[in-house]
Amino acid sequence: MNLSVVVPCYEEHECLPLLFDRATAAFDAAGLDYELVLVNDGSSDDTWQLLERFARSGRANHVVCVDFSRNFGKEAALLAGLSHATGDAVGIMDADLQQEPETLVAMYRKLMAHPEADCVAAYQERRHEGALHAALKEAFYHIFKAMADGTSKMVPDASDFRVFRRDVAEALLAMPEYHRFSKGLFAWVGFETIPFAYEPSPRAAGSSKWSLRQLMRYATDGIFAFSTVPLKLATWVGSTAAIASVVYFFMVLYDAFGLQNTPEGYPTIVCLILLLGGLTLLTLGIIGEYVARIYVEGKGRPVYIARRVVVSEGGRLRETG
Ligand code: UDP
Ligand code: MG
C-alpha cells in the first residue's frame, strides 16, 4: 500500500458524496495503491451510513471505517485514523473538500521526490478569516513558539493537512497523551518537514463546527500541553512583587520616621490587596490547569472509544473490533 488517507468526519453527510467522488477520481488518476481510513466522530446525522455504503460499493479497493461511540473531537479521530492506517505513507485531510484530494496527491509526489524528507505539511499562504480571528491566530503562533518546548521548527500556519512517512505516524502513535494538539505534536516529533503552500477552497457544504470559544480552548490547551512557562510566571511576578514591597517598605519607614509624615495609606492598601489577591488567584488558576491535566492523564482513559471498525477489501466487508 502506497498511501493511507485519514479523513475525520463529523456531521459531514452533505460533503461526503462529493468527497468520495473527488478523492477516488484523484487517487485513481494518480495510479496510487491507496486506502481510505474514514473515522465517524460520533455524528448525529447519517455520516456512518454513508461511510459504510461507500465501503460496500467497492469504489475504493481498501476502506477502513471507524465508528466512535460519541463525539471525541477531531484530534481523537486523527489518532484513531493513524492507528488503523497501514500505508507506507499517511495523508490527512478534512472531509469538507477545503483541502483538495488533488493537492494531497501533489504533496505525496513531493514527498516521494524527496527521499531525505519525512513529511510534507501544507500551509495557508493567505489567510481568509476576519481581522480579529487572523490577529488572534498570529498572536497564538508567536506565543506558542516562544513558550513551547521542542517546537522551534514548527511550520507557521501549517494545519494537519499533511502527508508523512510511516515512521512519523509511528512516532505520533507512541504519544498516548489525552490532550492532543497535533500542530504541536507534529513539530515535537521532529523529522524533516517540507512546507507546501496551498489555498484552501471554500467548504463544499455544511458549516465549520468550530466556535471562537472552542478555538480559544484549543489554543490554551496547546500552550498548556507543550509549555511549562506559565507555571514559572508565578515565580517572576512573585519575585518582582516581593522586591517592590521591600522598596516600598523603606519608603514608608522614611515617610513615617524621617519626614514625620505618617501616610494615610487606605487606597494603597486596597490596591495592593486587590493586585496581590488577583495575581495569587491567577497563579492558582494556572497551577489548576496543569493539575487538571495531570488528573486527566493520570486516569489513563482512552482518547476515544470505537464501537465498530469495518474493513472493506474490494467491497467485501469485514467487521473487526
Ligand atoms: N471534525 C471532527 N470532529 C469534530 C469536529 C470536526 O472529526 O468534533 C472534522 C470535520 O468533519 C472535518 C474536519 O474535522 O473533516 C475539520 O472540521 P471543520 O471543517 O469543521 O473545521 P475547519 O475547517 O473550520 O477548521
Ligand atoms: Mg473545514
UniProtKB/TrEMBL annotation:
Known SUPFAM superfamilies for this protein?
Nucleotide-diphospho-sugar transferases (SSF53448)
Q: Which InterPro entries match?
A: Glyco_trans_2-like, Glycosyltransferase_2, Nucleotide-diphossugar_trans
Name any one GO molecular function.
transferase activity
Q: Which Pfam families match?
A: Glycos_transf_2
Q: Which GO terms describe its cellular component?
A: plasma membrane
Per UniProt, residues of the Glycosyltransferase 2-like domain are 4-172
The highest taxon in the source lineage is Bacteria
Transmembrane feature ranges = 233-254, 266-292
Q: Which family does it belong to?
A: Belongs to the glycosyltransferase 2 family.
Q: What is the name of this protein?
A: Glycosyltransferase family 2 protein
Give the organism, scientific name.
Thermophilibacter immobilis
